[in-house]
Design brief:
Radius of gyration: 21 Å
Shape: elongated
Number of helices: 8
Distance between the termini: 45 Å
Helix content: 55-70%
Structural class: alpha+beta
Largest sheet: 4 strands, mixed
């Protein structure tokens, strides 16, 4: 749990800094690039190794990322590397994106379906959710065959369960109560 809280604190600090300097999109690009960089397991292991001295880590970071990200983003990954916390970068990037979406009035929604949705279905679901939430929607989808059919929509802390699995469970409860 402390690690998630750390990612949230870093994301909030970066967001406030970006907002203050009117660099919201630049930070989004930099954080995305940093999160992609730490997707390389060898890079993360090197930067997380406590026996590697901090100057060596900082030199590798400057060589690998120096020209592609801003100086403050370079400082962020350097700070995380010296604290052996570079594994937090994907979470920081996700939380920053959430804060940016909220600031821009964009609602995030996740749709879980039994089968993959095509583009027309994604568009239709996105429009339906936008009408419900009265805001622009950024949609992510996930396939989970165990729901049998239909879909489950998560918008913030709200869940709309229109899955066949949920309907079958409700039918089972109704039948059990009638006995």
């Amino acid at each position: 749990m402390p690690r998630a809280a750390s990612a949230r604190r870093y994301a909030q600090a970066v967001f406030e800094l970006a907002l203050e300097n009117n660099e919201l999109e630049r930070w989004l690009e930099d954080l995305t690039l940093l999160a992609d960089a730490v997707a390389n397991q060898d890079f993360v292991e090197f930067l997380s190794e406590p026996r590697v001295p901090a100057p060596s880590k900082l030199e590798v970071i400057r060589e690998a990322l120096g020209a592609s990200v801003g100086p403050l983003a370079l400082n962020l990954i350097s700070l995380l590397a010296t604290r052996n916390l570079v594994h937090l970068l994907p979470g920081i990037a996700d939380l920053y994106q959430e804060a940016l979406d909220a600031q821009q009035g964009i609602e995030r929604a996740e749709v879980v379906s039994a089968v993959p949705l095509d583009d027309a279905q994604r568009q239709s679901v996105s429009e339906m959710i936008g009408a419900i939430s009265s805001s622009e929607v950024r949609l992510s989808t996930r396939v989970e065959p165990s729901i049998v059919g239909g879909m489950i929509v998560r918008i913030g802390d709200r869940v709309i369960d229109g899955s066949t699995r949920a309907k079958l469970r409700a039918m089972r409860r109704d039948l059990a109560e009638r006995r």
